[in-house]
Design goal:
CATH superfamily of the domain at 27-124: Macroglobulin (MG2) domain
CATH architecture of the domain at 27-124: Sandwich
Strand order of the largest sheet: 2-8-7-4-5
Strand content: 35-45%
Shape: elongated
Distance between the termini: 112 Å
CATH class of the domain at 27-124: Mainly Beta
Largest sheet: 5 strands, mixed
CATH topology of the domain at 27-124: Immunoglobulin-like
Structural class: alpha+beta
Length: about 150
């Protein structure tokens, strides 16, 4: 075999061996949340690693934990971020006020992908002094006012 061809074959073989290792070294995307137990309307820190670089990410909260966040999500966390060139983010976000507390999952949803990465937490603060207050009634229809003579 000519030396140039031998070098080409060796280089191709080396690339085939290194490619799976490089993909494995990159790792799967992860999302972490702190604190793990937080009241509605309060701030959490969301950290992500191994996400697609320079992508916009939205966050969705599901109570209780949902297997399909796109179908069962409760509310969007009011924060849209863009990942760093290395695929990481570290952001503070205020959790939305929703009517249900308990075990929950916050999902990071990068734009233009089918990726959804979740972090489990416990959402508290849905009750005031141990009692649940009913919301005020909706406004009634048009009220007729009597004209003064």
């Amino acid at each position: 075999m000519p030396p140039l061809r031998l070098i080409s074959v060796a280089l191709c073989a080396a690339l085939l061996l290194v490619s799976p290792l490089a993909a494995h070294a990159a790792g799967q995307p992860t999302l972490s949340i702190s604190p793990k137990r937080v009241a509605i309307g309060h701030t959490v820190v969301l950290k992500g690693t191994h996400f697609p670089a320079k992508r916009f990410v939205t966050f969705l909260i599901a109570v209780p934990n949902a297997q399909h966040p796109e179908k069962h999500g409760q509310a969007f966390v009011q924060k849209v971020i863009r990942t760093q060139p290395n695929g990481t983010f570290d952001v503070k976000a205020i959790l939305p006020v929703i009517p249900r507390c308990g075990k929950a999952t916050i999902y990071a949803l990068p734009a233009k992908t089918k990726l959804s990465v979740g972090a489990r937490m416990t959402l508290i603060g849905c009750k005031a002094n141990g009692r649940v207050k009913a919301p005020p009634p909706p406004p009634s229809g048009h009220k007729k006012h009597k004209k003064k003579p």
